[in-house]
Amino acid sequence: MSRDIDYTFKILMLGSASTGKSSLSDRYVHGIFSEDIKLTVGVEFFVKTIHYKDKFVKLQIWDLGGESKFRFLLPTYCLGSSGAIFLFDLTRPETLHELDSWIGIVREKNSQIPIFLVGNKKDLTDIRKVPEDHGIQTAIQNNLTEYIETSAKSGENVEFIFQSLTEHMLKKIERLKLH
Hints:
By secondary structure, this protein is α/β, with parallel strands linked by helices. The protein has one domain: P-loop containing nucleotide triphosphate hydrolases (Rossmann fold, 3-Layer(aba) Sandwich). The protein has five helices and six strands. A six-stranded mixed beta sheet has the order 2-3-1-4-5-6, with helices on both faces.
């Protein structure tokens, strides 16, 4: 017997090319990691239904291509979004440089959604270049909801990111119901 979905949330996966957005999404939705993921051209779409507390929640994960030529798509995809994850590569500090641009567009189109800053490739400790303190400070300076470090390869914190974001999105709905 199937159960009705209580909520459907649209989550945007944002960030530069080759930060691991598709790998993270694939790890979360399918439980797999592949070394040879191709660059996302335009948008890739993932869906996962979860049971969170007493609710059934469908997560629609919209993985937007990180190359600047696809940035024109972002304003349209922001409409109706419930949350966003900005992913950067802990081994490449330059992947944080476009944070302002991405976040600015999201906030212009949908200012009230929770946005997570996620440092990916935590497993590559020997070539890591962005310290955890820098990630935390960047999240605070940009008024982002949360900072989390993860590894799509090992799976570390992958479930936690989406569980925490789901919790924030549900709390927002509950607050709206009270007003």
